Amino acid sequence: MNAGEILSRRLRGGDVVALCGDLGAGKTHFTKGIVGGLGGDPQEVSSPTFTLVHEYRDGRLPVYHFDFYRLEAASELRGIGWEDYLREDGVLIVEWADRFGEELPKDAIRVRFLIGEGDTRILEVS
To answer: Which residues are within 8 A (CB) of 71 and not within 5 positions of it... i.e. 6 or more apart?
Structure first.
């Protein structure tokens, strides 16, 4: 079972999941597990690197999937409606969250992805 799917069982509306790790570490794959675990279609999940946010609304909770990689400054978050999304009753998933960690709620679920040998990934959740 995918670690994202396991985490999805504990998620509630308003939760923020902050994903940090190198390129190719599995952040988008993890998000597919969350979306699938919430009842959405994981095949619809793709990296929002160029659109900055994707919305998935087919599961028991809506998922708002962000990517902070291309943002240059925290002030750009206003332009994508970050504060409005924080007031939504869905789950916010943020790839490259460490770029603007100060903009995340203090109670965000933080997941760090470490690349092990071969296809092995190590996840640190706090």
So the answer is: 52, 77, 99, 100
Host domain of residue 15: 3-86+111-125
In this structure, what token pair is assigned to residue 21? 């790790």
Q: Are strands 91-95 and 109-115 parallel, antiparallel or unpaired?
A: unpaired
Model confidence band, residue 1 (pLDDT cutoffs 50, 70, 90): low
CATH of the domain at 67: 3.40.50.300
Instruction: Evaluate whether residue 36 is within a structural domain.
Output: yes
Residue 49 included in any domain: yes
- Residue count of the chain, please give it: 126
Number of domain units in the chain: 1
**Mean pLDDT, the chain, whole residue set:** 95
Distance CA 13, CA 90 (A): 4
- What letter would DSSP give residue 108? -
* Phi-psi map region of 52: left, alpha, beta (phi>0 left; psi -120 to 50 alpha): left
